[in-house]
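Shipment paperwork, digital attachment
Item: protein structure file
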Amino acid sequence: MGVLSGLSWSWGALRTHLRDRSIRARLDRALEARAPLAAGRFEIGVHYADGPLNLYQLRRWYGPLAELAKTHPVLLLVRDPASALALIEESPVPVAFVPAPADVDALLAVQPLRIVLHVDHHPLTFELMGHGRRWHVLIDHGESDRTPNQIRAYDVSLVAGDAAVDRLGRVLWGYDAGQRAIRIGRPQADHPAGRAPFEPDGRTVVLYAPTWEGDGPATAYGSVASHGTALIRDLLASPEHRVIYRPHPRTGTRDRDYAAADREIAEAIAAANRADPAARHVHDTAPELGWQLVAADVAIVDVSAMVYDRLATGKPLLVTRPVAPDAVVDTAGYLSDCEWLTADEAPALRRRLAGLSEDSAAAVRLGRWVTYHFGDTRPGAATRRFHAAIDQLLTDWERRAAREAHDEQVDLV
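Attachment content:
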């Protein structure tokens, strides 16, 4: 290592150290300023171990968790200091900062957590699973076609509907999806976050919500560089359309082309709004997700959980066809029958949208897949199923705990 590169590394390490100290000091002040958590109160925990960049995974559950907390107190178990600081400020349910295993042990000694919900497969999730005598439940951060083998580790998975149960049984060999997966629909759809920053005015609202470039060839589903700039240019040229551009928080973190395309789209939207203030195009980087899905007349999404976030609304969508040759696409589910948008079609998106609006067969297919993936999508139905699943797990916990209390101790000596 040369002198200059060594100095650069040292300065970077120092900046990171100072930033972490600042975050921890602010977190300590925030923890001291709030009332202490009442002992013996919380029976539902939600574990989050990742950094702020992936908080979107938890934010999607704010509405359902706030509603659940009205009948069953809910506590967030947060391992990362920067995330804990953000969550103390914005979470609708209380937060416990438990960075180390000893902190988790201390919390579990005073809080009767019967159920721990998990939104991702962070390594610390599986560390926490070392604590038995409680249900560890995967709620995940969205329905998708991805079925990682880690799902086996959870006692139960709360899934959207029949499609997820069928996929789990097909992909995970020997996994009893009928017993270990509970269908709840999509309760987030009952709690759309935020409010549209515009009033309906007759324009066709198009949501473009691409994913990031992915962490490997098999998951290179992002379309910002391949489709995004072309389709946005076509939409912005029309006085009859309004764009909501919502890039993934990690867009451009691994690929310069994606970062450049993201900037180009943002600049084009800003220029279009200056030229026509009434257009009210939106470059959306806010944390909440909900109003965008409801406000959009049509959505364009990549192969990602956003497909199913949108599908849950029952409204039209196009899925971008990945251009990466090694991108793995599940052709056994909705993606076998969805409305694809190829990169070649992106420059003439308005023509593609016009064709979609006139295709009655596409509407019939969409309705069939909505039911297969989410079941009853009437307002409130998924929330009731979510609460029923929690009540069932709590009842099972009480039954097992009572049975264990009466079991005779086995003498192994």
